[in-house]
TrEMBL record:
Name recorded for this polypeptide: Outer membrane protein, cobalt-zinc-cadmium efflux system
Matches recorded under InterPro entries: MdtP/NodT-like
SUPFAM superfamilies from the UniProt entry: Outer membrane efflux proteins (OEP)
Top-level division of the source organism's lineage: Bacteria
Gene Ontology molecular-function annotations: efflux transmembrane transporter activity
Record Gene3D superfamilies: Outer membrane efflux proteins (OEP)
Amino acid sequence: MRSFIQCIVICLMGCIQTVAQDTLVLNRKQCEAIFLKNNLELLAGRLKIDEAEARLLQAKLWPNPTLSVDEVNLWTTGKGTNNLNYFGDGLPPLSGNDWKNQQISVELEQLVRTAGKRKKMMAMEEVSVAMAAEYLEDLLRNLKREFRNNLTELQYLQMYREVYEKEASSVAKLVMAYGRQVEQGNIGKGEYIRLKALGLEIAGEINRLERESNKVQKELKVLMRLPVQISLVLDDDDFVPEIKKLKEIHPEYVLDMASGHQPELKLAKLDKTYSDRNYAYEHAMRVPDITFKAGYDRGGNFMLDFVGFGFSMDLPVFDRNQGNIKAARVGQEQAGLLLQQKELEVRSGVMLAYNDLVSAVSFLEDIDPAYGDELEALLESYTRNFRERNISMLEYLDFLETYLQNRNIILESIKTTNEKLEDLQFEIGKDID
């Protein structure tokens, strides 16, 4: 029997250990460090920069020379032109007595780009590298807001669930106490049934919060690339923002930050730069490129071993790249207008986010920090007085509803402030120090 009990204890300890291993308790900074290291979208985005840098490397390369081997007769005859004798003694053999009267022509060509086309193409690809970096910043900006808001949501759900779990514990004790009183015939069964109904309502709310928490955890685990069996628990210490720090933020400061860090605005500026450089490139395409040639011909000329040089180029008679130049000029104008539009959008978005944050901070600041403790003390007092039948059930339930609403208002105000801060940082494109 003793061995059987020991086996049960060992199994239970194993189960407890497994549950503990599957629960991961982290704070927000630790979560963000894992997110920045493991997120697959960010890893893929970084490869876009490598891809753009590879294109820049390709633009730096010179065109390959072209080697042509021509006029090779794979066999020789004893007669020359028109089946007559060769001029003179014919062609000497290439090697010893082999390959007599063998003819061959070799030509080497090198394309040289004129009007600085290569440098202009490199300048365009440099802008593409910078744009790839800004696309990554924009991706990071979007993922950060999504990730941090999910952290805030999970913290809110966990803390709100704790409120209900604490209330569920108190109601469970009241149900047990009232059950004994009903059995003893001291009170009617109506109040007992009402308490049980209240317990069921609270349990249902806890279940709802649990489902919402699981949904948020699923999003966080995907963003952090955590194992699916992990249960993520967030520390509550960093849930409340620093009100004093947030009140020191000024509109001029955030507008200046946005002008230098907002990825969408920087992309619009880079697009304008790219359009300018594309116009310069297309304008240079009016000038034709030159191909230099060097050739060797054995037996194909009046000279036995002929070496000659030459060049070729297009004559810009009909096509002077007029259409592409005009299209590039239109692209410049379009990019300039879009840049002005983006500047207006960014400034408007920053001010809207700033005003929303100011409103959220003002509301949170108006809540007395000690009010939460006062609510807890009142809840204990009301629960004790109800248990001792100093107050009616109606009074107790009325206060309980007020308690839960006010607890939710406090948590919601903190959650909203965190979200509005993230909205402002999203519009700026940089975290506020």
